[in-house]
Fold this sequence. Notes:
The chain is mainly beta. The chain has no helices and 11 strands. Strands 2, 4, 5, 6, 9, 10 and 11 form a 7-stranded mixed beta sheet that branches. A 4-stranded antiparallel beta sheet has the order 1-3-8-7, with no helix packed on it.
Amino acid sequence: QVQLVESGGGLVQPGGSLRLSCAASVNINSIYVMGWFRQAPGKQRDMVATITIGGTTNYADSVTGRFTISRDNAKNTVYLQMKSLKPEDTAVYYCMTSYSTTPTMKSISYWGQGTQVTVSS
């Protein structure tokens, strides 16, 4: 079993920045793919960003150029740096692991409990 603990969510104004953290209970260098999904009220849960064991990253079109995913193997932690935040970024953000480089809801191995991000004036 892998435990994923998210932190860093909160309230931020449009145009602001926020960094989310996902701390794993195992060596993340042994995990094929890690990343983030998000889910707004009444909406489906969608992929935001992923990073592979080799360092390859992938982003949803809606966040490309604004969000950056990275990892710190020494801390077993994956980060999501969010800049130029928009109200439509408001959602619960979930950390995940997967065996797929293009994960869907059916290819997720482990989920974190989520952290709320609210972008509002």
